[in-house]
Amino acid sequence: MLILCLYVDDLIYTGNDEGMVEDFKRKMMNEFEMSDLGLMHFFLGIEVKQSSVGIFISQKKYALEILDTMNLSPIALYISISYHNKSTILYARGDTATPGLHILYARGDTATPGLLMLYARGDTATPGLLISYHIVHAISYHSTSCHNILRARGSSSIHPHHYHRTVDFGIIYKRGVKENLFGFCDSNYAGDVDDWKSTSGFVFIMSSGAISWSSKKQQIVTLSTTEAEFISAATCSCQVIWLRRLLEMLQCQQQGPTKVFCDNVSAIKISKNPVLHGRSKHIDVRYHFLRDLCNDSTVDLLFCRSEDQVADIMTKPLKQAVFVKLRGLLGVCSVDQTFT
Q: Which terminal CB of the chain, N or C, has fewer other CB atoms within 10 Å?
Protein backbone atom coordinates (compact mmCIF):
# COMPACT_ATOMS: atom_id res chain seq x y z
CA MET A 1 0.00 0.00 0.00
CA LEU A 2 1.21 3.49 -0.89
CA ILE A 3 -0.22 6.63 0.74
CA LEU A 4 0.36 9.95 -1.00
CA CYS A 5 -0.36 13.51 0.16
CA LEU A 6 0.07 16.34 -2.35
CA TYR A 7 -0.31 20.09 -1.73
CA VAL A 8 0.62 22.32 -4.71
CA ASP A 9 4.29 21.38 -5.20
CA ASP A 10 4.87 19.71 -1.82
CA LEU A 11 4.53 15.94 -1.74
CA ILE A 12 4.86 13.40 1.06
CA TYR A 13 4.36 9.67 0.81
CA THR A 14 4.63 6.50 2.86
CA GLY A 15 3.90 2.82 2.45
CA ASN A 16 4.33 -0.65 3.85
CA ASP A 17 6.33 -1.94 0.87
CA GLU A 18 9.80 -0.45 0.54
CA GLY A 19 10.14 -1.64 -3.06
CA MET A 20 6.88 0.07 -4.05
CA VAL A 21 7.97 3.28 -2.34
CA GLU A 22 11.34 3.34 -4.10
CA ASP A 23 9.73 2.56 -7.46
CA PHE A 24 7.24 5.39 -7.00
CA LYS A 25 10.01 7.82 -6.07
CA ARG A 26 12.09 6.85 -9.10
CA LYS A 27 9.19 7.24 -11.53
CA MET A 28 8.20 10.62 -10.10
CA MET A 29 11.76 11.95 -10.33
CA ASN A 30 12.01 10.75 -13.93
CA GLU A 31 8.72 12.43 -14.85
CA PHE A 32 9.10 15.69 -12.92
CA GLU A 33 11.93 17.90 -11.76
CA MET A 34 11.93 17.31 -8.03
CA SER A 35 14.25 16.82 -5.07
CA ASP A 36 14.25 14.02 -2.52
CA LEU A 37 14.45 15.63 0.93
CA GLY A 38 14.51 12.35 2.83
CA LEU A 39 12.38 11.82 5.92
CA MET A 40 9.69 14.43 6.43
CA HIS A 41 10.77 17.28 8.70
CA PHE A 42 8.36 20.08 7.76
CA PHE A 43 5.03 20.14 5.93
CA LEU A 44 2.35 22.87 5.80
CA GLY A 45 3.58 24.59 8.95
CA ILE A 46 3.88 21.37 10.95
CA GLU A 47 7.33 20.29 12.12
CA VAL A 48 7.98 16.55 12.37
CA LYS A 49 10.70 14.80 14.35
CA GLN A 50 11.15 11.04 13.98
CA SER A 51 13.17 8.70 16.14
CA SER A 52 13.09 5.24 17.67
CA VAL A 53 10.81 6.66 20.38
CA GLY A 54 8.11 7.73 17.96
CA ILE A 55 6.91 10.65 15.86
CA PHE A 56 6.64 14.15 17.33
CA ILE A 57 4.71 16.96 15.60
CA SER A 58 4.70 20.62 16.59
CA GLN A 59 4.33 24.15 15.21
CA LYS A 60 7.16 25.92 17.00
CA LYS A 61 8.40 27.84 13.96
CA TYR A 62 4.89 28.88 13.05
CA ALA A 63 4.08 29.96 16.62
CA LEU A 64 7.21 32.13 16.74
CA GLU A 65 6.23 33.75 13.44
CA ILE A 66 2.81 34.61 14.89
CA LEU A 67 4.37 36.10 18.01
CA ASP A 68 6.67 38.17 15.83
CA THR A 69 3.71 39.37 13.74
CA MET A 70 1.89 40.41 16.92
CA ASN A 71 5.05 42.06 18.28
CA LEU A 72 5.07 39.78 21.29
CA SER A 73 8.02 38.34 23.15
CA PRO A 74 9.24 34.82 22.28
CA ILE A 75 8.86 33.94 25.96
CA ALA A 76 5.15 33.56 25.30
CA LEU A 77 2.76 30.61 25.42
CA TYR A 78 2.86 29.51 29.03
CA ILE A 79 0.86 26.61 30.43
CA SER A 80 -1.43 29.02 32.24
CA ILE A 81 -3.33 29.53 28.98
CA SER A 82 -6.28 27.85 30.70
CA TYR A 83 -6.67 30.74 33.13
CA HIS A 84 -8.33 33.21 30.80
CA ASN A 85 -11.63 34.18 32.38
CA LYS A 86 -14.46 33.10 30.11
CA SER A 87 -17.08 35.30 31.75
CA THR A 88 -14.91 38.38 31.38
CA ILE A 89 -14.43 37.76 27.68
CA LEU A 90 -18.12 37.07 27.12
CA TYR A 91 -19.36 40.06 29.08
CA ALA A 92 -17.07 42.57 27.38
CA ARG A 93 -19.26 44.93 25.41
CA GLY A 94 -18.90 48.21 23.56
CA ASP A 95 -19.45 49.98 20.28
CA THR A 96 -15.81 50.71 19.57
CA ALA A 97 -14.58 47.98 17.28
CA THR A 98 -10.91 47.19 16.91
CA PRO A 99 -9.06 45.34 14.14
CA GLY A 100 -6.81 43.68 16.70
CA LEU A 101 -8.88 40.52 16.90
CA HIS A 102 -9.10 40.24 13.15
CA ILE A 103 -5.33 40.08 12.91
CA LEU A 104 -5.58 36.61 14.38
CA TYR A 105 -8.31 35.35 12.07
CA ALA A 106 -8.89 37.49 9.02
CA ARG A 107 -5.68 39.15 7.86
CA GLY A 108 -4.45 37.65 4.65
CA ASP A 109 -0.76 38.13 5.35
CA THR A 110 -1.00 36.18 8.60
CA ALA A 111 -2.91 33.24 7.09
CA THR A 112 -5.40 32.95 9.95
CA PRO A 113 -2.86 31.81 12.55
CA GLY A 114 -5.42 31.82 15.34
CA LEU A 115 -7.02 28.78 13.78
CA LEU A 116 -3.97 27.12 12.30
CA MET A 117 -2.23 26.95 15.65
CA LEU A 118 -4.88 24.44 16.72
CA TYR A 119 -3.60 21.81 14.30
CA ALA A 120 -0.93 20.44 16.62
CA ARG A 121 -2.08 21.82 19.97
CA GLY A 122 -5.47 20.53 21.09
CA ASP A 123 -4.95 22.10 24.52
CA THR A 124 -5.47 25.55 22.96
CA ALA A 125 -8.87 24.71 21.46
CA THR A 126 -11.01 26.17 24.26
CA PRO A 127 -9.47 29.68 24.42
CA GLY A 128 -9.58 29.81 20.63
CA LEU A 129 -13.29 28.94 20.69
CA LEU A 130 -14.15 31.50 23.35
CA ILE A 131 -12.44 34.41 21.66
CA SER A 132 -13.84 33.49 18.23
CA TYR A 133 -17.36 34.22 19.50
CA HIS A 134 -16.56 37.92 19.10
CA ILE A 135 -14.81 37.86 15.75
CA VAL A 136 -17.45 40.06 14.07
CA HIS A 137 -18.02 42.70 16.76
CA ALA A 138 -14.70 42.82 18.53
CA ILE A 139 -13.76 45.56 20.96
CA SER A 140 -10.40 46.52 22.42
CA TYR A 141 -10.79 44.09 25.32
CA HIS A 142 -11.08 41.16 22.92
CA SER A 143 -7.92 42.28 21.16
CA THR A 144 -6.16 42.32 24.53
CA SER A 145 -7.52 38.85 25.23
CA CYS A 146 -6.01 37.63 21.96
CA HIS A 147 -2.64 38.96 23.00
CA ASN A 148 -3.03 37.36 26.41
CA ILE A 149 -3.86 34.00 24.85
CA LEU A 150 -0.68 34.20 22.81
CA ARG A 151 1.37 35.44 25.73
CA ALA A 152 -0.65 33.41 28.25
CA ARG A 153 0.20 35.64 31.17
CA GLY A 154 -2.24 33.75 33.36
CA SER A 155 -3.36 34.74 36.81
CA SER A 156 -1.14 36.98 38.90
CA SER A 157 -1.79 34.64 41.83
CA ILE A 158 0.19 31.84 40.18
CA HIS A 159 3.68 31.38 41.48
CA PRO A 160 6.28 32.47 38.90
CA HIS A 161 7.97 29.05 39.03
CA HIS A 162 4.79 27.53 37.58
CA TYR A 163 5.44 29.34 34.28
CA HIS A 164 6.82 26.93 31.71
CA ARG A 165 7.36 27.74 28.09
CA THR A 166 5.16 25.72 25.76
CA VAL A 167 6.04 27.20 22.39
CA ASP A 168 7.96 24.00 21.59
CA PHE A 169 5.18 21.71 22.77
CA GLY A 170 3.57 19.26 20.38
CA ILE A 171 2.06 15.77 20.21
CA ILE A 172 4.02 12.55 20.51
CA TYR A 173 2.90 9.31 18.82
CA LYS A 174 4.89 6.52 20.43
CA ARG A 175 6.08 3.43 18.65
CA GLY A 176 5.00 0.01 19.88
CA VAL A 177 1.69 1.25 21.31
CA LYS A 178 -1.51 -0.57 20.37
CA GLU A 179 -3.28 1.16 17.49
CA ASN A 180 -6.71 1.01 19.09
CA LEU A 181 -8.86 4.09 18.55
CA PHE A 182 -10.74 5.42 21.57
CA GLY A 183 -12.30 8.74 22.44
CA PHE A 184 -13.73 11.01 25.10
CA CYS A 185 -16.77 13.29 24.87
CA ASP A 186 -17.99 15.95 27.26
CA SER A 187 -20.10 19.10 27.45
CA ASN A 188 -20.20 22.30 29.45
CA TYR A 189 -23.90 22.71 30.23
CA ALA A 190 -25.23 26.25 29.52
CA GLY A 191 -21.69 27.56 29.55
CA ASP A 192 -22.39 30.57 27.33
CA VAL A 193 -23.94 33.31 29.45
CA ASP A 194 -25.13 35.13 26.32
CA ASP A 195 -27.48 32.52 24.86
CA TRP A 196 -27.16 29.71 27.45
CA LYS A 197 -26.05 27.18 24.88
CA SER A 198 -23.74 24.37 25.89
CA THR A 199 -20.32 23.55 24.49
CA SER A 200 -19.52 20.11 23.09
CA GLY A 201 -16.01 18.72 23.11
CA PHE A 202 -14.46 15.46 22.03
CA VAL A 203 -11.00 14.04 21.48
CA PHE A 204 -9.81 10.81 19.88
CA ILE A 205 -6.53 9.18 20.82
CA MET A 206 -4.46 6.63 18.99
CA SER A 207 -0.86 5.51 19.56
CA SER A 208 -0.68 7.58 22.78
CA GLY A 209 -1.52 10.90 21.06
CA ALA A 210 -4.60 12.86 20.06
CA ILE A 211 -5.43 12.53 16.36
CA SER A 212 -8.75 14.40 16.27
CA TRP A 213 -10.45 16.90 18.57
CA SER A 214 -13.21 19.48 18.59
CA SER A 215 -14.54 22.26 20.79
CA LYS A 216 -17.81 23.68 19.46
CA LYS A 217 -20.93 25.37 20.75
CA GLN A 218 -24.09 23.29 20.39
CA GLN A 219 -26.74 24.50 17.97
CA ILE A 220 -29.66 24.31 20.39
CA VAL A 221 -30.36 25.25 24.00
CA THR A 222 -30.49 22.07 26.07
CA LEU A 223 -32.77 21.62 29.06
CA SER A 224 -30.54 19.39 31.17
CA THR A 225 -26.99 18.15 31.57
CA THR A 226 -28.16 14.76 30.31
CA GLU A 227 -29.39 16.25 27.05
CA ALA A 228 -26.20 18.28 26.63
CA GLU A 229 -24.03 15.21 27.22
CA PHE A 230 -26.18 13.05 24.92
CA ILE A 231 -25.88 15.58 22.08
CA SER A 232 -22.14 15.76 22.64
CA ALA A 233 -21.92 11.96 22.46
CA ALA A 234 -24.00 11.91 19.25
CA THR A 235 -21.72 14.51 17.65
CA CYS A 236 -18.72 12.49 18.75
CA SER A 237 -20.17 9.34 17.18
CA CYS A 238 -20.27 11.04 13.77
CA GLN A 239 -16.51 11.47 14.03
CA VAL A 240 -16.20 7.83 15.07
CA ILE A 241 -17.81 6.69 11.82
CA TRP A 242 -15.53 8.88 9.71
CA LEU A 243 -12.35 7.85 11.55
CA ARG A 244 -13.18 4.14 11.34
CA ARG A 245 -13.77 4.42 7.59
CA LEU A 246 -10.53 6.38 7.15
CA LEU A 247 -8.53 3.84 9.13
CA GLU A 248 -10.11 1.02 7.13
CA MET A 249 -8.93 2.69 3.91
CA LEU A 250 -5.44 2.87 5.43
CA GLN A 251 -5.61 -0.87 6.17
CA CYS A 252 -5.82 -0.27 9.90
CA GLN A 253 -9.31 -1.61 10.44
CA GLN A 254 -10.57 -1.43 14.00
CA GLN A 255 -11.65 -4.67 15.63
CA GLY A 256 -14.81 -4.42 17.70
CA PRO A 257 -16.62 -1.23 18.74
CA THR A 258 -14.79 2.03 19.32
CA LYS A 259 -14.80 2.93 23.00
CA VAL A 260 -16.03 6.44 23.81
CA PHE A 261 -15.85 7.57 27.42
CA CYS A 262 -18.52 9.81 28.95
CA ASP A 263 -18.94 10.99 32.55
CA ASN A 264 -22.74 11.17 32.51
CA VAL A 265 -24.53 7.96 33.53
CA SER A 266 -27.96 9.07 32.28
CA ALA A 267 -26.66 9.84 28.79
CA ILE A 268 -25.06 6.40 28.63
CA LYS A 269 -28.32 4.71 29.67
CA ILE A 270 -30.31 6.59 27.03
CA SER A 271 -27.79 5.54 24.37
CA LYS A 272 -28.28 1.88 25.24
CA ASN A 273 -32.00 1.82 26.01
CA PRO A 274 -34.82 4.42 25.79
CA VAL A 275 -35.14 4.76 29.55
CA LEU A 276 -35.97 7.99 31.40
CA HIS A 277 -38.39 8.67 28.56
CA GLY A 278 -40.08 11.57 30.32
CA ARG A 279 -36.80 13.45 30.48
CA SER A 280 -35.56 12.55 27.02
CA LYS A 281 -38.58 12.56 24.69
CA HIS A 282 -37.95 16.19 23.72
CA ILE A 283 -34.42 15.46 22.42
CA ASP A 284 -34.24 15.91 18.66
CA VAL A 285 -34.65 12.58 16.87
CA ARG A 286 -31.50 13.15 14.82
CA TYR A 287 -29.38 12.58 17.92
CA HIS A 288 -30.92 9.18 18.65
CA PHE A 289 -28.96 7.45 15.90
CA LEU A 290 -26.31 7.07 18.62
CA ARG A 291 -28.48 4.27 20.03
CA ASP A 292 -28.32 2.43 16.70
CA LEU A 293 -24.53 2.73 16.64
CA CYS A 294 -24.35 1.25 20.13
CA ASN A 295 -26.68 -1.61 19.18
CA ASP A 296 -24.65 -2.29 16.01
CA SER A 297 -21.43 -2.47 18.08
CA THR A 298 -19.91 0.46 16.21
CA VAL A 299 -19.68 2.59 19.35
CA ASP A 300 -19.39 1.49 22.95
CA LEU A 301 -20.26 4.37 25.26
CA LEU A 302 -18.57 3.79 28.60
CA PHE A 303 -18.47 5.65 31.89
CA CYS A 304 -15.40 7.43 33.20
CA ARG A 305 -14.86 9.59 36.25
CA SER A 306 -15.01 13.34 35.77
CA GLU A 307 -11.39 13.74 36.86
CA ASP A 308 -10.34 11.35 34.08
CA GLN A 309 -12.46 13.01 31.40
CA VAL A 310 -9.87 14.13 28.85
CA ALA A 311 -12.47 16.02 26.76
CA ASP A 312 -13.02 18.36 29.71
CA ILE A 313 -10.11 20.42 28.40
CA MET A 314 -12.17 21.07 25.24
CA THR A 315 -15.20 22.57 26.98
CA LYS A 316 -14.12 25.09 29.63
CA PRO A 317 -11.18 26.73 31.42
CA LEU A 318 -9.62 24.53 34.09
CA LYS A 319 -7.44 24.87 37.14
CA GLN A 320 -3.77 24.60 36.41
CA ALA A 321 -3.19 21.16 37.94
CA VAL A 322 -6.15 19.65 36.07
CA PHE A 323 -5.16 21.38 32.85
CA VAL A 324 -1.60 20.03 32.98
CA LYS A 325 -2.85 16.50 33.74
CA LEU A 326 -5.31 16.44 30.83
CA ARG A 327 -2.81 18.06 28.51
CA GLY A 328 -0.45 15.17 29.23
CA LEU A 329 -3.21 12.65 28.49
CA LEU A 330 -3.61 14.27 25.06
CA GLY A 331 0.00 13.35 24.35
CA VAL A 332 1.06 17.00 24.40
CA CYS A 333 4.60 17.48 25.70
CA SER A 334 7.84 19.27 24.85
CA VAL A 335 10.40 17.91 22.45
CA ASP A 336 12.97 17.80 25.26
CA GLN A 337 10.69 15.51 27.30
CA THR A 338 10.25 13.28 24.28
CA PHE A 339 13.72 12.78 22.81
CA THR A 340 15.97 13.18 25.87
A: C
